[in-house]
Amino acid sequence: MPIDITRTRAAYPALAEGFAHFDGAGGTQTPQSVIDAVADAMRLAVGNRSTASVPGRRSLELVTQARAAVADLLGAVPDGVVLGSSATTLTNTLARTLGAGWRPGDEVVVSRLDHDANVRPWVQAAEAAGATVRWAEFDPASGELPAAQFADLVGDRTRLVAVTAGSNATGTMPDVAAIAATAHAAGALVCVDGVHSVPHGPTDLAASGADFLVTSAYKWSGPHLAAMVADPARWAELRPAKLIPSSDAVPDRFEAGTPSFPLLAGMAAAVDHLAGLDPAATGDRRSRIRAGLTAAQAYEESVFARLRDGLADLPTVTVQPAGARRCPTVSFRLAGWTPAGLATALGAAGLCLSSGDYYAYEYFQALGLRDSGGAVRASVYHYNTVDEVDRLLAELDRLAARREQPVG
């Protein structure tokens, strides 16, 4: 059933402050259920993982519950869920682990559309191994990342292809399954950055073709934690650098140090929040998640259409092109304003947007926009409203009538 926006917004106490949050691509607000889960986990006695005591068993259960929740979210299995502090940290761990087996002449394919967290770890691992980096280019006119080019980029020495499932700069969603099929035909592995795509619709690890898929909970109403999923057999093939006494089991051996048990409680609660977005949904949690995110996707697209069309009607706004399939995210510039100055002016009006390159370094560098400040980004999430969009458009129209005032 359709999203009940009044019910949905009521779940987020921060929205009562009155700010319009168009910065979900950088991090969403937190539902009360997630806040309560974190607080409850901190209120009760929790020890380090152990079967010897109730507090120790509680921490074991929190880890188990978080793995199960993420597995349901992504169509994975709990034993294939590696938990960590951020997508960058997890990707770095994977890159160093895989890169230790690369040799001169091996090749890695990365994309200029990606967040740097799915670029630099692979570039650095390739450099350390003497491997070659090959670049997939986006089309600046259409915003697409053409899948066909990977047939020329991937060969018998390709060890890994890294690609985003959703650009955090423009929202473009490449044909990841087609790219993965090309990579697999050559015997290469595929690492997919799902950080921006996972919050905006159902995700299925197998259907994506990804060997490794990473996501960040704070982009889908959770705390600042991340997870990377793969087939447990794939993890079993890899030997990361680790402390000698730490667990050698899969997936534990990829998780350095003691996790934040309260935040893991919040991660599981955030998945349950997504599973409850469609109150009419039935079945197991995986089914309810898919129903909830499908309803959220339809709602977000309707709100985003208002934003997209409204920006197109403002002659002083220049919008960065995006692909035919996209997350509800747009980057733009306003004539007479630097991106940072515009974001600050909008912030003064209670409108929260990001500016800069948002770590989409290669994208803005390729366009020659990074040195002049990048762009301003607006991202729609399932708690945004058409009224908020109209408020943003009206403020942009007002600011277009005057140029940015110099500082000092």
Give a topology summary.
Elements: H1 5-10, E1 20-21, H2 32-43, H3 54-74, E2 81-84, H4 87-99, E3 107-111, H5 120-129, E4 132-136, H6 150-153, E5 158-164, H7 176-185, E6 189-193, H8 205-208, E7 212-216, E8 226-229, H9 232-236, H10 261-275, H11 285-312, E9 317-319, E10 329-334, H12 339-348, E11 351-352, E12 354-356, H13 361-367, E13 375-379, H14 386-400
Parallel strand pairs: 1-11, 3-4, 3-5, 5-6, 6-7
Antiparallel strand pairs: 2-8, 7-8, 9-10, 10-13, 12-13
Q: What does this protein look like?
A:
The protein is α/β, with parallel strands linked by helices. It folds into two domains: 5-30 and 294-400, Alpha-Beta Complex (Aspartate Aminotransferase, domain 1); 35-273, Type I PLP-dependent aspartate aminotransferase-like (Major domain) (Aspartate Aminotransferase, domain 2), CATH 3.40.640. 39% of the residues lie in helices and 14% in strands. The protein has a seven-stranded mixed beta sheet with strand order 2-8-7-6-5-3-4. Helix 7 links the parallel strand 5 and strand 6 (189-193). The longest helix is centred in the C-terminal third of the chain and has 28 residues, at 285-312. The mean pLDDT is 97. It holds the Pfam family Aminotran_5.
